[in-house]
Amino acid sequence: MEMTSTAVMPAEKKGLDRNQLKYLVIFTMVLDHMAWGFVDARIPVLGQVMHFFGRLTGPMMAYFLAEGYHHTHDVRKYQKRLGIFALVSWLPFVFFEAGLETIAENPMALIIQGVIFTLFLGITALRVWDSEKLSKPQKVTLVVLLTLLSLIGDWPIMDVLGPLFLHVYRNDRRKRWLAMVLLYAPLNLCIMFMSGNGQPWYYGWYNLGVGLVPLLVIFCYNGRGGKKSAFNKWFFYVFYPAHFVVLGVLKWYVFGGV
Length: 258
Fold this sequence. Notes:
Layout (H helix, E strand, L loop, with lengths): L17 H21 L7 H9 L2 H15 L3 H24 L1 H6 L9 H16 L5 H14 L8 H11 L4 H23 L16 H9 L9 H25 L4
């Protein structure tokens, strides 16, 4: 009697791929920006909930940057793409945040930058850290300078050092998440308590939303990149400045700068 054997293939982990997670984070980003534009954060349910889920944006983008840096075929092109779209997004971001009248009265308002600028600094920090031409003290000095420069951007400090920690501790899951917790938790707790000054006791509690990130990655991410297409590659870069233009027009010219 002939015996046959069948190989048991390991079951694929169920959950969301990187593209699907990216679109989820884009959705929460829009919720957050809509809340900043049109909903008072002192509203205990709507304002707080929208900002709470919006806290996913910064740390998840740091995670995507670290993953993209690891998987990309051309780091220079990836960095160049972030730099170009940081520039493209600059004025739409300032328009949404400050409005044209404020910019005309105070040109210093133009100094602020969006999260793509911070991510550009983040990938620059990654390249600096992996450079074989620089000594360790030179690397540390340059990373510190990039981190300080990020103070004019959205998600400052965190989206420069976050991708770096995720990259350095890529092969040690415990250290990866410990480093991220020690980076994001204290900074967001400081923001939470500082923003609550003179506000209702619950005002800054939406910052606790950063705690969703490890849960989302651990339990929802299946480790796959998802379908490769031009749409998936370019959607965020086009959508990011475009949504600021739309929200800015609504904020300043339809709702009168609420």
